[in-house]
């Protein structure tokens, strides 16, 4: 073998080795990000861009060694605050002097990345390591999470190289077009964080509590088959939770959640008892798509931050799976 062929073969073998290690390198970065977003103190201003609209927000995140507290408030547009602390999420609207309290503390400002599911053999995404760029004055490592089909969106992530904190994220469709963008314009870490910014602008007793009273849903075991179920699910989506209940007027309703680990779709099924459904067809707000239809005496609505094709496929194929009263 001449020298030219030898060098070419050597270069090929090195590239194959590098490609083989890339998923593990990406996984390590995503592991760092997951820990950093919960356990590192950070404070900064970021912009959220969607459908040509720009919102500017400020966030303070502090970890006390056991749990984290977070306060997010708007800089532009209507005044609003989100405070996450002590197992609850509080949404404050100073202009209306009102507050809404939510016990579901799993809601996050930044995307949650389920690393184990993304790296499993049946994952519907590819993970790629990009280059390094500057964001808000810090060097960031670019990570690409790309969908393998038209049923889900992907992400581009920029992680601060020293801490792993997410500095920028772009939600992309399967053609890599940007649907929404979140980016810090300035950020500080550790001792530079002003903890006083965790405190709301006014005490709770100055606000009217508008927390809605919702029907109690009974969680069901995943081994228990839902009353209704899509006959066709997009590849990779599985039932992750479901609950059901009865309203005071006797109407039966069920809530199903289908997920591929990263994307999720909520399906609401409600008996109408001869009434007209509240909506039908497709509606869209930013990257959020909803598809509603009526079938016999049912109102079926599928909603999620997924493409139109996904919510339509699920909602159109809902059928009864078990006999009911």
What does this structure look like?
The chain is of the alpha+beta class and 325 residues long. The chain has two domains: 21-209, outer membrane lipoprotein receptor (LolB), chain A (Clam), CATH 2.50.20.10; 218-320, MucB/RseB, C-terminal domain (Phosphorylase Kinase, domain 1, 2-Layer Sandwich). Helix content is 15%, strand content 45%. The chain is built from three helices and 21 strands. The protein has helices at residues 3-39, 115-118, 308-316, and strands at 42-50, 53-63, 68-74, 81-85, 88-93, 98-102, 125-135, 138-147, 154-160, 166-172, 178-189, 208-209, 218-219, 228-230, 238-246, 252-259, 264-271, 281-285, 288-295, 298-304, 318-320. The strands form three sheets. A twelve-stranded mixed beta sheet has the order 7-8-9-10-11-1-2-3-4-5-6-12, with helices on one face. Strands 13-15-16-17-20-19-18 form a seven-stranded antiparallel beta sheet, covered by helices on one side. The longest helix has 37 residues, at 3-39. Residues 3-10, 12-18 and 212-218 have low confidence and may be disordered.
């Amino acid at each position: 073998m001449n020298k030219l062929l030898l060098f070419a073969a050597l270069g090929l073998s090195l590239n194959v080795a590098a490609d083989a290690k890339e998923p593990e390198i990406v996984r390590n970065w995503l592991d760092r990000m997951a820990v950093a977003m919960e356990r590192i103190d950070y404070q900064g201003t970021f912009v959220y861009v969607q459908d040509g609209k720009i919102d500017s927000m400020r966030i303070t995140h502090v970890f006390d060694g056991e749990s984290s507290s977070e306060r997010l408030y708007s800089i532009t547009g209507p005044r609003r605050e989100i405070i996450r602390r002590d197992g609850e999420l509080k949404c404050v609207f100073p202009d209306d002097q009102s507050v809404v309290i939510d016990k579901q503390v799993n809601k996050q400002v930044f995307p949650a990345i389920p690393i184990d599911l993304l790296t499993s053999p049946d994952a519907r995404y590819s993970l790629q390591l990009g280059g390094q760029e500057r964001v808000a004055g810090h060097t960031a490592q670019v990570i690409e999470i790309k969908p393998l089909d038209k049923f889900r969106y992907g992400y581009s992530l920029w992680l601060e190289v020293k801490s792993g904190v997410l500095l920028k994220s772009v939600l992309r469709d399967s053609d890599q077009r940007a649907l929404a963008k979140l980016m810090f314009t300035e950020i500080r870490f550790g001792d530079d964080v002003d903890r006083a910014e965790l405190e709301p602008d006014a005490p709770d007793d100055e606000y009217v509590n508008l927390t809605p009273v919702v029907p109690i849903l009974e969680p069901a075991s995943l081994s228990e088959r839902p009353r209704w179920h899509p006959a066709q699910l997009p590849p990779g989506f599985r039932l992750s939770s479901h609950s059901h209940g009865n309203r005071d007027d006797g109407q039966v309703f069920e809530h199903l959640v289908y997920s591929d680990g990263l994307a999720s779709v909520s399906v609401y099924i409600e008996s109408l008892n001869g009434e007209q459904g509240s909506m039908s067809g497709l509606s869209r707000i930013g990257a959020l798509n909803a598809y509603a239809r009526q079938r016999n005496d049912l109102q079926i609505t599928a909603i999620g931050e997924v493409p139109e094709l996904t919510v339509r496929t699920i909602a159109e194929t809902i059928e009864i799976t078990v006999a009911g009263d």
